Amino acid sequence: MELLANESIRYQLNRGLDMMNQAVDGMEVVQPGLKENISYLRVLEQRQFEAQQKAAAHAQQEAAANLGGAVLMDGMTGVHELSLKEVIEAHVQQNCLRFKLKLGRMLNGHQIYGFGNVSIIIDSLNQKVYAQTEDKWSLESLQGLLDLHNKSFHKRR
């Protein structure tokens, strides 16, 4: 009963049941996260290139760079609004860190990513970023994420 009370476990059990139902119905069953991983890998080079360009433009327009509403000038279309994930990717690159998908790791339906040495989830709907700090998840700013990374980096030395 304790397991069913945990939203994340309940979500994963329901995903498993859905997969079993798909198999019984003769539908193709795909490993969870596989489609996302293939898509991620397919566009990784393109996104990295785009993120580098956006990071350069983002640095020039710091005044417009709040967490959810960063706006960049795009040479072809005029204005391009960055998603929260894109802002985080640009921030990671500006600080020479790694941003990576942690395959198979989810929290309450949100994908977990690595921001340097810090595990994060991105709530795009509410324009919030949460970081894992010891045994809990807490709301963080971009600078807070950088501080957490640096703090964890110094602990390891």
Automatic annotation (TrEMBL):
InterPro entries in the cross-refs: TFP11/STIP/Ntr1
A single Gene Ontology CC term: U2-type post-mRNA release spliceosomal complex
UniProt superkingdom: Eukaryota
GO biological process terms on file: spliceosomal complex disassembly
Protein name (record): Septin and tuftelin-interacting protein 1-like 1
Organism: Quillaja saponaria
